[in-house]
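Data card: per-record layout.
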Amino acid sequence: MRVEIYSDIACPWCYVGKARFERALAAYPQAASVEVVYRPFQLDPAAPQQPLGHREVLAKKYGPQSVAMDERITALGAAEGITFDFDTVLENNSLLAHRLLRFALDTAGSATQARLKGRLMAAHFGEGMDIGDRGQLADAAAAVGLDRDAVVAFLATDELAAEVRADIDEAHELGISAVPTFVFEGQWAVQGGQEASTFLRVLEQVAEQTAQARGEEAAAAGPDATPEGEACADGVCEVPPPSSR
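The structure for this 245-residue chain is written out next.
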């Protein structure tokens, strides 16, 4: 099973959703057969390259209620073992970090990409990392096993910039307008940082329906036929985001 997760490094709900999904995956008996790929999305494509303090940015958008918003997500994060230190969070354009995640996927595979995603989020939300700083990004990449010199050389170019922008455009074409969005087998979509129990239920349902679709295809083709490619039932598994969102 393939799960594609559309998210932004600068999105706190994406961090919570990542933790909850990984907890569900750890409880899923067939976890070894699940490939998780992170896809780019930018909540603010026009965000400046120079970092600004999170408190200042959020206050301009939401006014006094921004404090309560931060307090709520901080409490939810703590329940998942996540540290949100919004006094140190720096907000700026996330495109460079998305390029690095694509580089990790292309050169080291989805497992390394997932580890890098976690490192970037932990550093961004809890350690005051500037996700637009090439040196800090290279340090994060090295921490998950990527070659630092290769990362520095990559970040000095515009390589994969067009591909990442195309991926973001494709996300919009697919109708994705909020993150995190989890797409299972290219067919079933779940939006929001759902509870781990919800993700576990979706994993089980997708596996069951995919197996059923394959069985029906094999039966229709006859006992000597071998289905080509992956088969999946039509439809979308839509789970409404929590009322707190």
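Known properties of this structure: Confidence is low (pLDDT under 50) at residues 223-245. Residues 1-11+30-41+176-245 form one domain.

See the next section for split statistics.
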